[in-house]
Amino acid sequence: MQITPYKNNNLLLIADISDPDVFIAMGKFPAHTRWIGRSLAVKITRLNVQHAINNWPEAEWLGGSAETLKSHEHMLGISEDMRTIKNSGAVIPDDSDYQYARQPMDHQRKAFALSRDRAVFALLMQQGTGKTKVTIDSACYLANKGQIDGMIIVAWPNGVHRNWIEYELPVDMSIPYDAVTWTPQHKTKRKREELERVRTSDKFRVIAFNAEAFTSDAARKWMELYLNSGKYMLVVDQSASIKNPQANRTKYLTKVSKLAPYRRILDGQPVAEGAGELYSQFKFLDSWIIGHNTWTGFKSEFCQIGYFNEIVGYRNLETLHKRIDGHCYRVLADDCLDLPDRIYKMWHFDLSNEERKVFDQLKVQDFAFFEKESDEESDEESMPATMEETLAMVKNMRLQQISSGWFKNEDELLKINKESPSRMEALKALIEQNAGQKHLIFARFRADLELIQEVLGDKAVSFHGGIDQDDRDEAKRKFMNDDSVLYFIGQPQTAGIGHTLTAAQHVVFYANDPSLRLREECEKRAHRKGLKHKLHIWDLVAGNTQDSKIIKSLREKKLLSEQILQDPKSFFMSYE
Asked: Given a cut of 60, is residue 375 above it in pLDDT?
């Protein structure tokens, strides 16, 4: 048997297969295969090459197996030297061939060494560990080598893309650059000229989009104009925003990613609900990493499928981890940052008689009662769900609103109590206990956000989707720098991602979002570099409601995430 690199060294061609026993091993290649005559072509990946070596040790390698592996280290995984860097706490890589604008920490040096020459890579570095800096340094390094002449950033949620341009690039870019931020004003003459000026600049070119922009044809047009006008590194920040393989945003970004010779995904919590979230993120990089080019193929290997084709569990997680291991770098904040402790506490309270009555009435309703509202729980970020799962989410959301003192009538939320909701009274008691100290307060529903702001008055600032970007920025500034502002009231989807709010001494979850990703992101707004004091994290818990169930669900999701990513068991939501 002969095995040789084929098609510009992108495939292995296993020639002239005639032994029937060989076909058994053929069916076990981790990645895709296709027949070319009587020969089998497989994508060159570390696992495929190792599979061929293990099964046909006597095969004649035209070019030699060692040479094949050596020539493809940049895409196969990591070399032995890089493996040493990745696994050893003592080894600091030699990066003397690159001049940093700002010196990195040791774990950032490792991430830079592992990723800088790689065409595709995932920086799965936990929030606050500096994955943005590593990405910028890699882009500058590749630009110095002539490999790229620009970087395109796609960030989620809206507003985070501005952070790259306004705060990150100015301190870490080591080469001259021109940058522009995508905005809703893209149709104005001034903005069009700015977009075009950066696209044709002689300097290193950077454009930052918000992920939500790709629901519009205009953003797609400019994305393709940039990609077709040079060699770019395409970066998806908070790559879990493309976890849904059926979302239009995911399909589009995966398609155009092939126009970028270098690609990166960044996310500190790439898995929050299940292993299926990894599929689209790594397909954006290269579908051959995981070994499946279709969602159906991925599910058949890694998911347990129940009735109605829903995912009921996962399998082969060790195999999945091995496939992504050579293409990512994972570091936890607790391993590399000397941060003060997080202290978890619950603040218990009871619903009023009126709230309890409405809660119990809705609790016994079957799912059919919520069918007309089922569309409210669908969005671009959600993984495909069965109708039963969607209706369960709607019911739980309605119960959560009731436990916060609101009842939905048509499209309007009405107060159940004549006076203040019980949850609001619990919050007031909590912050009175911590009088004079700064609190981040996260609430899921707009009605709660507005009520909390009304009650807390001038001592509070708000940050949510109903506030324009300039006012949001001013709210952050006041909370961090003005001693008279004690409370920062935020919605998890907007305030919980991409911000530094280390002035907080307490983080209060007024009503938890069921997303593990949002929960961890919200905590990291305060528990990050720059925090000087212990951080108290509070959950308001109404007796005999969904509050305790959501907390239990978040813990279970965290345990699954740790298993998939092989993180050490954490003390997440371990209450005093």
From this structure: no
Q: Per-residue confidence at 377, pLDDT binned at 50, 70, 90?
A: very low
Look at 339 and 72; give whichever has higher pLDDT. Answer: 339
Instruction: Answer yes or no: are the C-beta atoms of 235 and 93 closer than 8 Å.
Output: no
Decide the pairing of beta strands 342-349 and 535-542. Answer: parallel
Confidence of residue 8 (pLDDT cuts 50, 70, 90): low
Residue 495 parent element (H or E): helix 492-495
Cβ(499)–Cβ(434) under 8 Å? no
**Relative orientation angle of helices 295-302 and 317-325, to the nearest 10 degrees:** 130
Over 70: is that where the pLDDT of 4 sits? yes
Q: Which residue has the higher pLDDT, 338 or 118?
A: 118
How does DSSP classify residue 533?
S
Sole residue written with tokens 């202290």? 343
The CA–CA distances, whole Å, from 527 to 19, 337, 485 equal: 60, 10, 19
Q: Are the CB atoms for 104 and 133 separated by under 8 Å?
A: yes
Number of alpha helices (DSSP H) and beta strands (DSSP E) in the chain: 25, 22
Is the Cβ–Cβ distance between 177 and 208 less than 8 Å? no
Residue 25's CB is within 10 A of a number of other CB atoms, namely 15
104-121 burial, b at 16+ Cβ within 10 Å, e below that, comes to: beebbbbbbbbbbbbbbb
Q: Give the integer Cα–Cα distance in Å for 260 and 232.
A: 5
